[in-house]
Every structure is written in C-alpha cells, then in structure tokens.
Amino acid sequence: MCDRKPVGDIEDISLVRRFFDAVSHSMGNLSRDASHDDLASQAHHELLEFKGYVHSVESLACLEGPGNRFLAFWSGCKARCTYCSNPDTWEITAGKETKVGELVEKVGRMVDFYRPNGGGVTVTGGEPLVQYKFWQRFCMRLNRYFGLHTCIETTGQGTRRAWDTVLPHTDLALVCLKHPKPEGYRFITVKKDLDTIPWWCRYVVIPEWTDKDEDLDALIEICKGSPMCKRLDLLPYHTLGVNKWEEMNLEYPMKDMQPPTKERMQYVAKRLRDGFAGTDIIVTGDDQ
Ligand code: SF4
C-alpha cells in the first residue's frame, strides 16, 4: 500500500544511544504492565501469541501519520497496482510469521520517541485490511500497554467485516485513492465507513493517468463530500520498485512512464487547493 520502499529498521547510529536509553525505561513500563492481573488470563496470552505475516518494520518513520512512528509493512495484497513499489508484499506468506507480542515488544523499546510529538504506530503494506484480525489484536495490546495513536494506510479494499473490525481500534486512516472515478475503483462503500474517523487521502499523481483536470475535479468532489477528510497528500509516481518486478521475473507494465515534473505537481496542488477553498482540507506534496 505504502508508496515508498521499506528502508528497514533503525540504522542511524546517532539514534542508537537514545534508543538504548529508551529501552530500559520503556521495558520498565512493559514489565510494570505485565505484572497486572490481566496478564495471567488466557485471553491476554492468546492476543500476544496471535500471528500474522510482516514484510518489514521501521522503528522511526515520520511521513505516515502525525509525529514519530513505528511503521510496519504487512504482507498480502490483491490490488496488483500497475505501478506497485512493493510487489514483494503481494503474497501473505512472503512476509515473516510474527507474533503480536513480538511487535508490541519492538514498539515498547521505542515508545518514548513516539509519545512526545503525538506519534504512534502505522501499519501499511501490502494491504493491511487483508490481515485485519492481526491489526485488531495488535491495536488492542498497543492500547493496553502504551495508549499510542494508531493509523492504518490502506487502499480501502477490505470487506465490511474487516472495516468493522479495525475502525474501533484506529485513530486515523491514510487512504490511497487509486483513482477518483467510481467505475475505476470501489471507493463509495469505504467512504461511508470512513466518515466515522478522520482520514487523509493519499493520491499518486501519474501523468495522463490520474492528473487530468476531470480526475482532479472528481477527487475534489470525493474529499469535500466526506466531512472527516482532513488532508490530501500528493505522491508523485516513481520508479523505485521497478527492480523488484525484474527480480520477480514480472514484466513492469509502465516501462515508458515518467514521474511528473515539479511544475506538474505544483499545477495539480494548486488546482486542488483552489477546489478545497473554504474547507479545512490541506494539500501537501508539491514541494518534493
Ligand atoms: S498492489 Fe497493493 S501494495 Fe502495491 S501499490 Fe497497490 S495497494 Fe499498494
């Protein structure tokens, strides 16, 4: 789902010292909570033992939601977007089998980096709604231990059961809108569900494919029609994932497509901002 490549777990050596400082404090929080009676219950144990498939994690991300965030790329996605940057997340079992407890522990090691600026945890993919029960259980334990802000980045391609399961545990949704026209994308049902929590629209700008005036006008209509839409992030199409298609012996369908120019991004952003005049929807992404 996420339109950037996973860069892996924390590597910046300057953060390592702070990381270990945070570990002792945060693990103290964890073990304090772990002494609670609830820990002894079978239900609690089962939540921590619940397994899902995880492609990779980043312990310190800052683009996928507010503040500093723990970012998890979950595997599994049937969308098969023609410009997918992460085709290695398509198959669920391509990810590493991981327990909820393992992820909670990773978050616990860094929790002091997330709290001060309203950060938290974001799950992307792949399509996180494929493993919606994993997200639900992960959030339940996150809330139990840390009370962190939770965010899901999705194309919206989930069943009603999936949405009904994840929304009560989710503070913010980043919705990557693949195309604004209904016939191109089953968005309408999801939009109704999303009106119960804030959501940010993620929109990939592909020259001639998604940046025509009529597309942008349709996009404005969708976002303005949802009172909980708070922000629109423009993501310029890029080719960073092409090598993965080659490694997987897949033919990349958009070989001749070029990223949009800076001028085109600025045009798109201006048209959208004009369209959102009088609302509180902000537009980002034309400064990259
Ligand atoms: S195929 Fe799935 S993971 Fe790839 S861009 Fe589309 S929604 Fe995202």
Automatic annotation (TrEMBL):
Signal peptide boundaries: none
InterPro entries: Aldolase_TIM, Organic_radical-activating, PFL1_activating, Radical_activat_CS, rSAM, rSAM_sf
Molecular function as annotated in GO: 4 iron, 4 sulfur cluster binding; [formate-C-acetyltransferase]-activating enzyme activity; lyase activity; metal ion binding
Pfam families (UniProt xref): Fer4_12
Cofactor(s) for this UniProt protein: [4Fe-4S] cluster
Keyword Lipid metabolism annotated: no
Keywords from the UniProt entry: 4Fe-4S, Iron, Iron-sulfur, Lyase, Metal-binding, Oxidoreductase, Pyruvate, S-adenosyl-L-methionine
UniProt record similarity statement: Belongs to the organic radical-activating enzymes family.
Span of domain Radical SAM core: 63-277
UniProt xrefs under Gene3D superfamilies: Aldolase class I
Name by which UniProt lists this protein: Pyruvate formate lyase activating enzyme
Organism, as annotated: Catenaria anguillulae PL171
Source taxon at top rank: Eukaryota
Ubl conjugation listed as a keyword: no
